[in-house]
Design a protein that fits this description.
alpha+beta, 6-stranded antiparallel β-sheet, 5 helices, globular
């Protein structure tokens, strides 16, 4: 099923959901099968492979990290070809002084914000959606 591309519909239907847990970004030169299996996401760069893991998993595996994040999923099924969604929620979060690391999945966008900003970010995203209705 193709995702939504209409920005007005996307924004009014954001339905942000805070996932339980704390998450970290780790970088490894060559990820092991165990590390990859534990990761909720990964991305290969020239400098190494970034793994996104639950904090407890990173600690269990002995992986270093320096940023602890909350994970917010936008429940709206956004198209990978949608224009303006990332800019709109980034602007709303930036207006509140909240940094955001975004992962686009096939069905949803996933936002990682500093753990201390989780509730504030959720409120900003809910306000953004309410303004579009």
């Amino acid at each position: 099923m193709t995702g939504e591309t209409n920005l007005g519909i996307l924004l009014s239907s954001l339905s942000p959901r805070l996932n339980p847990g704390r998450f970290v970004f780790c970088c490894v030169a060559q990820p092991s099968v165990v590390q990859m299996a534990a990761a909720i996401g990964s991305f290969r760069e020239a400098e190494g492979t970034t793994l996104i893991l639950a904090r407890e998993e990173a600690e269990r595996l002995g992986l270093a990290y320096d940023y602890v994040a909350a994970w917010i999923t936008l429940e709206v099924h956004s198209s990978l070809a949608a224009v303006g969604l990332t800019a709109a929620f980034a602007r709303a979060l930036a207006g509140e002084g909240i940094s955001c690391n975004v992962i686009a999945g096939y069905h949803h966008d996933h936002l990682f914000v500093a753990e201390a900003d989780a509730e504030k970010a959720l409120a900003a995203l809910q306000q953004l959606a309410a303004e579009q209705r």
